[in-house]
Amino acid sequence: MVFWEGYVSDESMGTFAPIVVYWLYAGFYQLLPPLDKYRLHTRTEEDEKNLVPLGSVIKGVLLQQLVQATVAELLFRLTSNMNSSGIVVQPSIVVQIVQIIIAMLVMDTWQYFVHRYMHQNKFLYRHVHSQHHRLVVPYAIGALYNHPLEGLLLDTFGGAISFLISGMTARTAVIFFCFAVVKTVDDHCGLWLPGNIFHIIFQNNTAYHDIHHQLQGTKFNYSQPFFPIWDKLLGTYVPYRLIKRPEGGFEARLIKD
Fold first, then answer.
1. By three-state DSSP, how is residue 195 classified?
2. Which of 74, 89, 214, 253 is the most exposed place for a label (fewest CB within 10 A)?
3. Per-residue model confidence as pLDDT tens digits over 171-222
C-alpha cells in the first residue's frame, strides 16, 4: 500500500513524481541562504564563468522533462504488469532492492559510455554536450540542463534501459527514478554541506562531478550518477582534494603526481 494508491496510477506517478521531486529539491537549494562558507565556487565565479542565464536553463530543463514524461508514460503503459484482476503484481522488498541496485549499475554503465563518447567525438561535444558545460560552475536547477538530443540519449534512454533490464514495476520505478533525480541534483548543487549523506555514502558526489565541470577536468570523472566504477576501471578517474579557501568555502583541486 502506498499513499497514492486509489488516486493516481503507478505509471502516472513514475512519470510525474521525478519531475515534481526535481523542482522541489533543486528549488530547496536555490532558496537556501548564500552559505558562502560551503560553496565550491564563489558567487563571482558563478556569474563570470557560466555562459547561460538562469531563464534559459529553466526552459531547457522543462523541455527535457517534457520528452522524458512522454517516453516514460509510453514505456510504463506498454510494460504494465497486471494479473487477470487488473492488480499490479509487486515483488517482495528484497527483490525490489536487488532490482534497484541492478538499475543503478545499468544506468551508470549507459551514462558513462555515452557521456564519455560525447566528450571524445568533437562534433557531438561542440554541437550537443557543450550545452551542459556552459554551466562551468554547476548549480542545482541546472542538473538536467542539456541539449535535447543529449537529454534523450543520456538520461531518457538510460532510464528506460535501466527500467527494462532490472525488470522493476512502475511502483518500484517511482522510488528509483526519484532517488536518481535527487542524486543528480545534489551532484550539481555546488555546495559541500556538512552531514550530506550523499557525500558520506557516495564517492561520486558534488566535488567529484565539479572536477568534471571545470575546464581542466573534462577528460576525467565521467561517471554519473551513482558510482565511479567505470572511471576507475578505464583510467578516467582523477583524485582530488578539498581545500578550504581563506575567504570562505571550498575548492575541489586535482591531485597531481
1. coil
2. 89
3. 999 999 999 999 999 999 999 999 999 999 999 999 999 999 986 556 899 9
Grid cell at residue 178 = 526519484
Q: Supply 63's cell numbers.
A: 523541455
Euclidean distance between CA atoms 100 and 81, whole angstroms: 17
Task: State the cell numbers at 184.
Answer: 543528480
Is the C-alpha dihedral spanning 31, 37, 41, 46 positive or negative? positive
Q: How far apart are CA 213 and CA 161, in angstroms?
A: 26
Global pTM reads 0.92
DSSP 3-state percent helix, strand, coil across the chain (nearest 5): 65, 5, 30
* Backbone φ and ψ of 51, nearest 5°: -110, 15
First to last CA, the chain: 54
**Strand ranges, E, within 78-196:** none
